[in-house]
Amino acid sequence: MEENMWIIELESALLDDCNVNDIYSICQGKPLPEALRPDVWQVCLDVRNKSDQMSHFNEIYDLPFQSQLREDCQRYVERMGNDEEDKVSVVSDLESIMTFYCKNRNLQYEPDNGWIELLLPLFALKLNRSDTFNIFEAIRDTYIPKGCKPKGNVFHVFRLLLLYHDPELCTVLDTKKITPDLYSLTWFQSLFASCSSLSVIIAMWDLYFQNADPFMVFFLALIILINGREQIMSMKDSTKEEIIKFLINMPCALEVDDVPDFCSLAQYYALKTPTSFKTDYLKALYGKQNDTPRSQEESNKVSQALCLPVSVYELVENSATEFPVQDSVRFFLVDCRPAEQYNAGHLSTAFHLDCNLMLQEPVAFATAVQGLLTAQKQAIEVNSNAGGEHLCFMGSGRVEEDQYTHMVVASFLQKNTHYVSLLTGGYASIHDYFGEHMADCLEDHSVSKCLVCQQHNAKQSKSTMLKVSTPSSTDLFSKFSAAMKSKSAEVKGRLMDIIVNPNSNGAGAGASGATGNGAGQTHAVQERHVSAKERNGKRYRNVAPVFSIDDENEDAYDPAEKDAPQPAGVSKEIVNLNQYFKTADIINAFKCQDVHINGYMYDSHLIITPTHLVVLRELGRGQAQIMVRRPLASIVKITAKKRHRDLITFKYGFPDGDGLLITDMDRFLIPNATEATAIVSKQIMHVLNKAN
Questions:
Q1: Which of 317, 347, 427, 642 is the most buried (most CB within 10 A)?
Q2: What residue spans carry the region label Disordered (predicted)?
């Protein structure tokens, strides 16, 4: 009885409004009862309450490729071995769903594109046609990577993953010119349904949908190769075609009892992979498909990548973690810049390996590599923050020098070194990441010798000489404040004047941030916080917000404001982070911490859309709660602490005479605060321009 208590708990949860987190915490990887599987899958795929889309199907089968589609449906159903009566019903529903999917999405069916194989296992759930369609559509949208085609981006990414975990096996396949798309295309198209038995697929998808990780297919494919490693390596003398045939059919050997271990191994390897693998490729592989120049550029970067890239955010955060999760990624940073650049500033945890030595002094380079491996081993043994088995190489971020860094990385890969990655953007990205805090975060930093500082200074000098530079944030936004206090009819013209003539003080004396009365005095914008009685007041019609970024030591943070009820209309729904980040109208997203007045900080994401500032609070297992949706037009001030420039406060309200009426505020600790506030301010300008 006690052993089956989880089933009773699951039944109870399904009667309530449960989500995928609830399902996972109850089931914990156990095989699902057949009677509950349909409901569990619908909850995990978030289609339980979805409308009947098939009701819009006109039952007209007139697609240009209809005869091919019908023939394929019949062929696949024939293989299943059902009774004749069942076959007719399944073929009918199969063709109907496929036809409506093509019409509804304006897609063209192609033989062997994986759609039919993906759909067929769903008929085992014995759901009606509409629910079956909704599940099929959700699986396609959520778990099938975009570009599953020969030489597609998916397979370049998978090769990088294989190279990271098993460079020798990757090299063997590369030597035979066996690219991943030649053997794993059907795996990715159908989530292994094309090459596994129905019982194995059902058991695998039970775990797959509970984990809610679209990248799981990459790690399952990786495990398939690693498990068959010995056989693959023994086929070095076989022909290319023989090896490909063997690889394609490898998942066929899976049995139901193998599935739990198969999925557990996939999760283990996911834990041993830098998170940048998912964050960097999420939108490209699972976002909305587009053929913009930018997406093509990203695609080229992936196909030309030397090894797995690691983001500066992950590297810095990883270095700062004192008690990492067991078996998680721990980096050993290798700084490959020339000695003079390293001596002008570097991370304290970096091991210096001068890339110039490789060509100039090969013997010295070999000695340095041995020193690196010894230092790495010792750092791991003493559990140092600088020690990890995952090697992350760093160049300067300058093309002319990084070619030598790439040669160093290639030399490690040729020796079949596991866990080799390259820092995206090199030292320049670290330098920019720390911004004004670089003096505290970098060792031996010299402004006069640092090439990144020299480059920044050269740009500033050039801008000063040309007198066309954008003014500093403080100056620019104090002038925005002055413009915002003008009458509504003049606002747009005043703003445009500031942008075109950034060094002017604006028309009229006495405006906030401008010098007036001939005395050189600055009139500060007065602000007051709205009282509880005033909180329901509306913005003055046609009056734009006063907007400024202050460089003040902003301590006037009213606890009563943060504890007050949220404004009406603020939605607090639970969302899937992966799905939310794929939203087309997201301009940018910044990982941050939501800082509360009681001192608590919550891991969050600051999302910038064309019209709103959205805050997502992480709940774990890929879920997040939408805490607030703030209209950009309601932001009247952005302030930063003098001593903590990454601690940013957004104030919301509207003009009140010569001052501001503050209705609410949020405070965040944002590692990329400068970039975040710049993007927010730019987007506010777009909103204001449209509104006037």
A1: 427
A2: 509-534
